[in-house]
Amino acid sequence: MNSVDPDQSGNIAAPRQSRLSGWKLTLARIAALLFVIGITITIFIFRTQVHQLQMLGYPGIFLVSLLSNATIILPVPGVLFTSLMGAVFNPVLVALAAASGATLGELSGFLAGFSGQAVAEKTKAYQRIEPWMQRYGHWTILVLAFVPNPFFDIGGMVAGAMKMPVWRFLLFCWIGKFGKMLLFAYGGASIFGFFSSE
């Protein structure tokens, strides 16, 4: 008769650990989903007051960018605001503030995917981005963050659902967002300079 020592094999202890991990994971997913829904509804309701934060300078740029990117699917313009602020403030510092805020804001999509309740999971866009994420991982996040498009939220959901390490998601998201915000901030400064020189 083969007896199994639970201390050596780990087979008996594994289910208990798995149940505990599963319970914590479920709780984390519920909390993430509630956070995403709450922040999206709040920003949508108060979307007109968000732009009054421009009076706060660089911290205002950070906050507007954070709130603009924290919405899921519902669009709140943030890149236009970055262009306008690039005409008023130092474009590099505007890009730093906007990219940092935007990156933190994009955690809402990541958390929606992590929660297992990605609202776009059945859409064609989700099914199109998922293979790219499986094949190229963080490079997909960087490209989606850099190129202005309506699909970054879905990319964030895919990354969260695939359990991409959050630090990697944030790093490559920030690199892409910084490049994009720098272009828009300098674009705004250039346009403003063109019209003010006439």
Describe the structure.
The chain has 198 residues and is an all-alpha fold. It has eleven helices and no strands. It has helices spanning 6-9, 13-45, 47-50, 58-69, 79-86, 91-105, 107-114, 124-136, 138-146, 152-161, 166-196. α2 (13-45) crosses α7 (107-114), α7 (107-114) packs across α10 (152-161) and α8 (124-136) packs across α9 (138-146). The longest helix has 33 residues, at 13-45. It is globular. 38% of the residues are buried.
What is the number of helices?
11
- For the report, how would you describe the main beta sheet? none
Mean pLDDT over the full residue set: 76
Query: How helix-rich are the residues, as a percent range?
Result: over 70%
Global morphology = globular
Number of strands: 0
State which percent range the strand residues make up: under 5%
Question: Which class of secondary structure composition applies to the elements?
Answer: mainly alpha
Task: Return the string of H and E elements.
Answer: HHHHHHHHHHH
Q: What gyration radius follows from the Cα positions, in whole Å? A: 21 Å
Low-confidence stretches: 1-20
How far the N terminus sits from the C terminus, by CA atoms, comes to 94 Å
